[in-house]
Design goal:
Layout lengths: L1 H33 L4 H26 L3 H26 L5 E3 L5 H20 L4 H21 L4 H5 L6 H30 L3 H26 L3 H26 L9 H18 L2 E3 L2 H17 L2
Antiparallel strand pairs: 1-2
Helix pairs in contact: 1-2, 1-7, 1-8, 2-3, 2-5, 2-7, 2-8, 2-9, 3-8, 3-9, 3-10, 3-11, 4-5, 4-9, 4-10, 5-9, 7-8, 8-9, 9-10
């Protein structure tokens, strides 16, 4: 009975976290447009933040409770899910007649590679996540946001969508839902980990990571149907970049130091698949069922290997 209650609580928290974060970002965009902020700023900040909002609240909530293992696990697991699961869905969902070499602004992939290298190499060299690493990552991601604002532009029509009423109220309620959802997710995830005798790192790398990556999966299916793989790759690079530079930095600065689990293997996988996605994005993109199923199998094998 305990496990049923925990799973229900976790599921409710995950729905509140993901849906609340989505509504929160949507309301923030509407508010920003209402105050005539440039679309480039909105695109580079709110949309970039939006892809990582669920991870940010889940990992920050874990760090505030002193559980850096769960926070780091969520970040690493989410980036691996983005690089394997989301890409797999793209290659399976693209129309059969689609074949195109896409053009991407290289700021996101280049800086994703840089921040991932800093994140992984610091842990490999020090065997911990020091406060200084969090500060460096935060400074770097602020610089990247500045670069995005100065070079990228987003069509205001793409951001506005359907105008919403009561945006301040919706924004406030969605923020409360996101905060409460993240607390439910973290509390129940830790309890589930203790019940089954597994580390919170594994819980963060699996069920929380998959849950917080569901918006990217749903968005990928829609983008593939619209024949827009560039949106998918841009989302992956932006999400992975913000997961490390913003989510990772925040969690580490709140609760710096060592983690109780060995994470070298997961970090290597994250590092490896991140560069695979960069390689794929620079080649002709077309429907490839074999590659899609191969990535899904690789992701399942990764999950199984954690236990």
């Amino acid at each position: 009975m305990d496990i049923v209650i925990l799973l229900v609580g976790f599921s409710i928290g995950l729905v509140l976290l993901v849906k609340g974060a989505d509504e929160m970002v949507s309301s923030a965009v509407q508010i920003a447009l209402k105050f005539k902020l440039p679309s480039s700023i909105i695109g580079a900040t709110f949309i970039g933040f939006g892809t990582s909002a669920p991870e940010l609240f889940a990992s920050t909530g874990a760090a505030l409770k002193g559980d850096l293992d769960l926070g780091i696990g969520n970040i690493v697991g989410s980036n691996i899910a983005n690089s394997l699961l989301v890409v797999a869905v793209l290659y399976l969902a693209l129309p059969k007649d689609f074949s195109q070499k896409i053009k991407l602004n290289q700021i996101s992939p280049v800086w994703m590679a840089i921040l991932t290298t800093v994140f992984v190499s610091t842990y490999v060299l020090t065997n911990e996540f020091p406060f200084l690493l969090g500060a460096v990552l935060l400074i770097l991601v602020i610089y990247v946001i500045y670069k995005m604002i100065s070079t990228e532009s987003v069509d205001e029509g793409e951001l506005l969508g359907e105008e919403k009423n009561y945006i301040w109220l919706r924004g406030g309620l969605s923020l409360l839902a996101t905060l409460y959802g993240s607390q439910l997710v973290v509390d129940n995830a830790v309890a589930i980990a203790e019940l089954f005798g597994v580390s919170s790192l594994i819980i963060g790398s699996t069920i929380i990571a998959i849950g917080t990556s569901l918006p990217e999966v749903a968005g990928t299916i829609s983008a593939a149907k619209m024949r827009k793989p560039d949106i998918v790759f841009g989302n992956i690079f932006g999400s992975n970049l913000f997961n490390i530079g913003l989510v990772g930095a925040t969690a580490i600065m709140i609760s710096p130091g060592e983690i109780s689990s060995v994470i070298d293997y997961q970090l290597f996988i994250m590092y490896f698949v991140s560069f695979i996605v960069i390689f794929l994005s620079r080649n002709v993109i077309k429907r490839n069922s074999l590659l899609g199923y191969l990535f899904i199998v690789a992701y399942i094998l990764f999950l199984v290997s954690l236990f």
